[in-house]
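Please decode residue identities from the backbone states below.
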């Protein structure tokens, strides 16, 4: 499996970005795929380091505690799901990891880099698709991805190839020169994925990537995420309300409630754990949502919502169209 180097320049840096190797011509149509990056051995111990570590992370907005002593480790190369109801603190935690919010208490590490002290080093390693719309409806798909390539300091020499690879990775080549406002909601999400992939991130953070999409578009977004991950070995940290998606696509999940992780494991481990707690003959095999309800108990109230209460639906298509 090939990996990025970590030592070159990225967004805000003063030189070309890290990822591409000299033999980009042999790469598949995926930014960061084999042939576009230096070998794993170049990173030394970094390739063994967890992708994300949060210890005692806390964040408050005034009197509102959003994240309350979060402990989290995301392993290099896994798809990790951060699940929880509205207001659990998922987005706040993700924003601390991306360095968009400071780390007022505790620590956050990304591939061994401290998010508080090495913000640029952290930013160079990640791609981020926020909940909010990040595509510009007045630009074409290609222009949107080019804009991100410039922001993330992809060198001029590589830019066109990387943009083409990112668009191909999400199946938007044919639509690349149409304005984004003509795209469906699913296409917009794939465009945002291409924007995040153009810098060939080692860590991709996705905040509710499929919210508001129909089942076919949701599946398509996940298939594209998985294809890029298979080609590059990147780590994916995703928040979602959709338990079925977490079950199907995540290697491990953390169930977050009121700012803390309440349960952690593979979806199967969590379901089996609940089945064992319930005892033999307790009926149908529990779902992940059952696990969460068991853990959160009466704490899952109207204020915090539940997993099917998707108040933050992005309605991407209507906002772009
Ligand atoms: N900018 C802000 N100002 C004030 N309070 C905020 C702000 N952002 C989040 N909060 C509060 O912090 C808490 C955690 O919010 P956060 O958005 O991190 O949760 P979440 O799990 O991502 O929820 P959702 O699934 O709805 O996105 C909530 O009580 C929320 O109201």
């Amino acid at each position: 499996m090939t990996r990025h180097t970590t030592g070159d320049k990225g967004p805000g840096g003063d030189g070309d970005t890290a990822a591409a190797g000299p033999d980009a011509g042999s790469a598949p149509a995926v930014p960061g795929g084999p042939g576009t990056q230096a070998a794993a051995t170049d990173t030394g111990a970094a390739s063994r380091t967890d992708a994300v570590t949060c210890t005692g992370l806390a964040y408050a907005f005034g009197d509102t505690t959003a994240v309350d002593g979060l402990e989290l480790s995301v392993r290099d190369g896994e798809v990790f799901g951060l699940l929880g109801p509205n207001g659990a603190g998922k987005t706040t935690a993700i924003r601390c990891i991306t360095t968009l919010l400071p780390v007022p208490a505790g620590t956050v590490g990304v591939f061994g880099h401290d998010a508080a002290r090495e913000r640029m080093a952290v930013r160079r390693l990640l791609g981020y698709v926020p909940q909010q719309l990040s595509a510009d409806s007045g630009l074409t798909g290609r222009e949107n991805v080019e804009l991100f390539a410039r922001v993330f300091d992809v060198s001029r020499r590589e830019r066109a190839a990387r943009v083409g690879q990112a668009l191909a990775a999400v199946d938007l080549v044919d639509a690349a020169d149409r304005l984004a406002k003509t795209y469906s909601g699913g296409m917009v999400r794939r465009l945002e994925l291409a924007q995040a992939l153009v810098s060939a991130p080692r860590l991709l953070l996705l905040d509710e990537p499929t919210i508001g999409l129909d089942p076919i578009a949701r599946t398509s977004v996940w298939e594209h995420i998985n294809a890029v991950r298979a080609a590059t070995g990147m780590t994916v940290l995703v928040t979602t309300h959709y338990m079925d998606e977490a079950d199907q696509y995540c290697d491990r999940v953390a169930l977050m409630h009121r700012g803390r992780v309440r349960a952690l494991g593979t979806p199967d481990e969590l379901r089996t754990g609940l089945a064992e707690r319930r005892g033999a003959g307790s009926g149908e095999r529990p779902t992940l949502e059952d696990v969460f309800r068991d853990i959160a108990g009466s704490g899952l109230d109207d204020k915090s919502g539940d997993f099917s209460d998707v108040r933050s639906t992005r309605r991407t298509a209507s906002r772009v169209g």
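Observation: Residues 1-28, 34-47, 301-321 have pLDDT under 50 and may be disordered.
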